[in-house]
Specification:
The structure is a homodimer. With about 450 residues, chain A is α+β, with helices and mostly antiparallel strands. Helices cover about 35% and strands about 25% of the residues of chain A. Chain A folds into three domains: about 160 residues, BirA Bifunctional Protein, domain 2 (2-Layer Sandwich), CATH 3.30.930; about 130 residues, BirA Bifunctional Protein, domain 2 (2-Layer Sandwich); about 90 residues, 3-Layer(aba) Sandwich (Rossmann fold), CATH 3.40.50.800. Chain A has a nine-stranded mixed beta sheet with strand order 1-5-6-12-11-10-7-9-8. Chain A has a five-stranded mixed beta sheet with strand order 15-14-16-17-18, sandwiched between helices. Chain A has a two-stranded antiparallel sheet with strand order 2-4. In chain A, helix 1 packs antiparallel against helix 5, helix 5 runs parallel beside helix 11 and helix 6 packs across helix 7. At the A-B interface, helix 1, strand 1, strand 3, helix 3 and strand 4 of A face helix 1, strand 1, strand 3, helix 3 and strand 4 of B.
């Protein structure tokens, strides 16, 4: 078999890099659980009719076909009608899960979900065909008080802050009520069109957007300028409220939005720092039309070209079954979008390629059972340990450990009187000390592989 | 939208049941890492030509098609030729990963992999279309010493033993060299045929198998009886060796197999107990033809009808790239096959439906920031905590905690002089004590949801 080549858009990690992903996922899960979010997993597939409800993503769905159906006995039309496809996000499956199990869930239902999703789009930087997302959502039955908007923002900010090997980040928050109320208040007739055009400010020059606001959204020059001025407003505190009021537009929905957005910004204050910022940024709109209040995007400092790594918002009707509607608020972290570039660019890796903190050296093949017993003693104390694969010369066994990044090698010494003593060698410093395998453990920092900056890791 | 119904063959867990799966996976991962197995994940898809190399499973592969390819511009034939399908096990992807990254891996390479796999087969008890497997393998370059066979057996036995809420289990071990050598030694000409027929002993009566050994495998009556006698031999120690020798068949491969099998059984001895058994069972053959030495199956005590929950063995050529071959030995645990029936039959569930150990009660909506601050103090000490969704009457807030299984409710009491004190109520016992939120934590056993027998959980 020829050497296989990677599939474009399907990133995979080498063992040392997977260490980074494991630690990121563990830190996220720990923070989410500390806040009472329970974990669920949903199946990878959903019925096509569910996946195709959102027009925009329909072209990206991977359709599933059983091979044994044969090439001709079922057309793609039938697959579309009754078939299944791979989920392209975790929101559609979650909405279905909530409806399917509503009678067995307690509301408000806080859940986190960390799974792969698939999109059959053309791979490009930061865009993959298979990638991991980590979502948190809080869903209510019929009602979901606004304070949960503040809660999900705080939880995700705390979770991202826990990834202390990351550069800083900025959570950008806006509110649909605010911008929709503003556009209504200044007399715009096609609110959605205005929002779509303002959303293009990061791609088109301001003058061009202004032109389109007039030609396509039917605004006059003064209205267009006010919309553009609104989009320039940003602040790390509630001062944006006065800036908006200074524009002289009034509307009840606008007022609601201002109050909500100020509450999110103030509520996240205790979680901010020099590197962790939460800003009211009034140009953020989010393309998807199901958001109805708070909206979130997140930029990684120094890696702004990745786009938003973490997005979400409030949706007043995640799902509905006729009897009840289920409003929700959530944020989704693009784990692969965040990590794959950092790993590929060599920013992050794991400190070693195996979990083992200790290699038990082997004098000869006959002493393997004794070495296995020593290893078991260490494992019983929580020390990841492996036994040398072969009874090579000790220098070779040390190089074996070095190549894997294993920090300690354990040697047994049999004295002339037949008693055995054990020594642990820190192969980084060369220091060698007598130890009792029944009680000795390496320093806590050496127990598990650490996430390190590759440049700092020799 | 109408209430969705479950998809047959795609099991999903409710939050309390997912607790069971989370703890199982965490325990397995911990054990694997203690033994130096590093984690990897491979993409869900593989090229169809790789997936179809094993004839037996070809009918079960789910083929992937991008929706945007349109119904007619690419036939299934092309998908088969150049397309992709979902992996049906973790061995095929692992073999591909090893070949693709051989230059960047250290051998022997120990890895564990816990992922979903997909098979488009008809769902039935213990058979799913989507299910989770946990695989460990050790792979060498060109050579892999036999002692690794003992190692993987020990690691999996220790991992399964760590799931202390499971009933007992029996790891059944056999060796292909032993049975092939035996059949050769007694003069059988079609070794594979004999092995296939002996493998049917759990489905067909002995007489029928005997008949087929004579009619289909060309054995004489004495040879057929010897084969059947071999298959009845089983022992929890190395005494099976004498039982085999007593049959009077001699062959060099047989001797090798006897030595290896005895070594696995003896090597696992320290890990056995009243409920954890490792037996040499000479009727175990494993259908798949890539095994070349040790083979494993595992039965769960009291749930034998599930079939083998954990299977594997030695394969002398997991992969080959022309320059090197990569021999390996591994075992695969069917996590879903094990857990889905235990959860559905009501044997196991989680002790609560949320991670929260504490609910901070709310006097009124104005005190939410104070309650949030208390909750953050608890979380900083590792206590999963949520704040009441609404300032209901305290009785209602306690019932809110009860429904979720949250063991403690925290109340703030404001004295007449304005000072605030805090009390923690264990809602199971009703006991209420004064606490300092900056230092108080619930008992360790209450910090996380536990796996419990449903019958014992009121």
């Amino acid at each position: 078999m020829a050497k296989p080549t990677p599939l474009s858009g399907f990133p995979e990690f080498l063992p040392a890099d997977r260490v980074v992903e494991q630690q990121v996922l563990a830190t996220l899960a720990r923070t989410f659980e500390l806040h009472g979010f329970g974990n669920i997993e949903t199946r990878a597939v959903e019925p096509m009719d569910q996946l195709l409800r959102k027009g925009e993503t329909s072209k990206e769905v991977y359709v599933l076909k059983r091979l044994q159906e044969g090439p001709n006995d079922q057309g793609l039309e039938k697959a579309l009608d009754k078939g299944m496809g791979l989920h392209f996000d975790l929101t559609v499956p979650f909405a279905r899960y909530v409806l399917e199990n509503a009678g067995k869930l307690e509301f408000p239902f806080r859940r986190y979900q960390i799974q792969k999703v698939w999109r059959g789009e053309r791979p490009q930087e930061g865009r993959f065909r298979e990638f991991t997302q980590a979502d948190i959502d809080i869903v209510g039955r019929d009602v979901l008080p606004f304070h949960h908007d503040v809660e999900v923002a705080r939880v995700m900010v705390e979770a991202l802050s826990g990834l202390d090997f990351l550069p800083g980040f900025t959570l950008q928050v806006n509110n649909r009520k605010l911008i929709q109320g503003f556009y209504t208040g200044l007399g715009a007739s096609d609110i959605d069109k205005v929002m779509q055009l303002i959303d293009k400010l990061d791609k088109l020059p301001v003058d061009k957007v202004r032109e389109l606001l007039i030609s396509d959204a039917g605004l006059d020059e003064k209205q267009a300028d006010l919309c553009l001025q609104l989009a320039t407003i940003a602040s790390e505190d509630a001062s944006f409220v006065d800036d908006v009021r200074a524009l002289g537009v009034s509307d009840q929905l606008l007022e609601e939005g201002l109050t909500e957005l100020a509450a999110v910004i103030e509520g996240c204050k205790p979680f901010t720092s020099d590197t962790v910022k939460v800003v009211a940024d009034l140009k953020i709109a989010r393309g998807l039309d199901y958001y109805t209040g708070t909206v979130f995007e997140t930029r990684l400092t120094g890696f702004e070209s990745l786009g938003s790594i973490c997005s979400g918002g409030r949706y007043d009707a995640l799902a509905s079954d006729g009897k009840s509607t289920y409003p929700g608020v959530g944020i989704s972290l693009g784990v692969s979008r965040l990590l794959v570039p950092l790993v590929q660019k060599g920013v992050l890796t794991g400190s070693r390629v195996v979990p083992s903190a200790v290699l038990v050296a082997l004098t000869d093949e006959e002493s393997r059972p004794a070495a296995d017993a020593i290893a078991q003693q260490l494992r019983a104390n929580g020390v990841p340990t492996e036994v040398a694969a072969k009874p090579d010369k000790f220098g070779k066994q040390i190089r074996y450990a070095e190549r894997r990044g294993i920090p300690f090698v354990l040697f047994a010494r049999v004295a002339e009187d037949g008693t055995t003593t054990h020594e642990a060698k820190d192969i980084r410093s060369g220091e060698q000390v007598s130890i009792d395998p029944a009680t000795w453990t390496p320093p806590a920092a050496d127990l598990r592989p650490q996430v390190v900056m590759k440049e700092q890791h020799s």
